[in-house]
From TrEMBL:
Signal peptide: none annotated. It comes from Jeotgalibacillus campisalis. This is tRNA pseudouridine synthase B. It catalyses: uridine(55) in tRNA = pseudouridine(55) in tRNA. Its EC number is 5.4.99.25. GO terms for molecular function: RNA binding; tRNA pseudouridine(55) synthase activity. Gene3D superfamilies: Pseudouridine synthase (3.30.2350.10). CDD domains: PseudoU_synth_EcTruB. The gene is truB. Belongs to the pseudouridine synthase TruB family. Type 1 subfamily. It is an enzyme of class 5 (isomerase). Pfam families: TruB_C_2, TruB_N.
Length: 305
């Protein structure tokens, strides 16, 4: 069984929990997720099955969309609602929509973020959350992330008991921490802040409308045809990458992993993956040869008959 099943991950489980359960439900070993979602976060989690596990990283590296609730007035150790409060400042007046939109515009585009201590980023071979649990503070690497768009739900702004909450929709690139974005919004507004709720609404081309729950998958598991009805082809997970069409003759060379001359109409830049298709089927992923000019080299061969 090869393809991608879009799971709506419920709160209370990790991405790895989903993989473990699907392995049991479908009785197959080759199952992989496409990007970690914290246990407290629900939403879209594409799961790759069989041959499609080869392309999981390309879904992981693609754009994501989130719906987040931001709380102004308190900050926490984890930058979300599950950490201990480390700072607070009572808010006594309403926040104008214009001021908030101005701040959101400042955080749109390429911005620098420092990952939270409670995150899976590795420093010296150890994940930051492991240091945090031991009470050890380490220097964290600042990195550039891409925020494509932030949209304010104007009707969501609420002042209650000295805390302002509001909801935003974010389209962003890989490696973005929405928790940290919430903190940055607070800093620009002059208040401690944290992310109080988060849902992933899109991953690559997969949206909530494409998803089923683990319980729904389990209901279908007794009938392989019923499972295949909800499987998306591997090509869906590669649709954000550039394409190049090849012939039956070239396909035979590609399946053998051959290094080939760069076609005159090749559009891929250095280190940019391009998917080679024969008709509608993705056969392999190639890029410009890193050391030999005029050649293209396989990154992954997806089909070997």
């Amino acid at each position: 069984m090869d393809g991608i099943v879009a799971i709506w991950k419920e709160t209370g489980m990790t991405s790895h929990d989903c993989v473990f359960k699907i392995r049991k439900i479908l009785r197959m070993k080759k199952v992989g997720h496409t990007g970690t979602l914290d246990p407290e976060v629900d939403g879209v989690l594409p799961i790759c099955l069989g041959r499609a596990t080869k392309i999981a990283e390309y879904i992981t590296d693609s754009g994501k969309s989130y719906r987040a609730q931001v709380s102004l007035g308190t900050s926490t150790t984890t930058e979300d609602a599950h950490g201990e409060i480390v700072d607070s400042k009572k808010i006594t007046h309403d926040l104008s929509k214009d001021k908030l939109k101005e701040v959101l515009n400042q955080l749109t585009g390429k911005i620098q973020q420092t990952p939270p201590m409670y995150s899976a980023v590795k420093v010296n071979g150890k994940r930051l959350y492991e240091y945090a649990r031991q009470g050890v503070e380490v220097e964290r690497p600042t990195r550039v992330v891409d925020i494509h768009k932030i949209t304010l739900d104007e009707d969501s702004i609420l002042l209650d008991n000295g805390v302002i909450t509001f909801t935003i929709d974010i389209d962003c690139g890989k490696g973005t921490y929405i928790r940290t974005l919430a903190v940055m919004i607070g800093e620009l507004l002059g208040y401690p802040a944290h992310m109080s709720k988060l849902t992933r609404t899109k991953s690559a081309l997969f949206t909530s409308g494409d998803c089923i729950t683990l319980a729904q998958l389990e209901e279908r598991a007794l009938n392989p045809d019923a499972v295949r009805e909800v499987l998306h082809p591997m090509e869906t997970g590669l649709s954000q990458l550039k394409k190049y069409l090849i012939s039956d003759t070239v396909e035979k060379r590609v399946k053998n992993g051959s290094v080939m001359p760069t076609p005159p109409d090749w559009s891929g830049k250095q280190n940019e993956p391009v998917v080679l298709y024969n008709r509608d089927r993705a056969v392999a992923i190639y890029h410009l040869h890193p050391s030999k000019e005029g050649l293209i080299k396989p990154i992954k061969v997806l089909w070997i008959d």
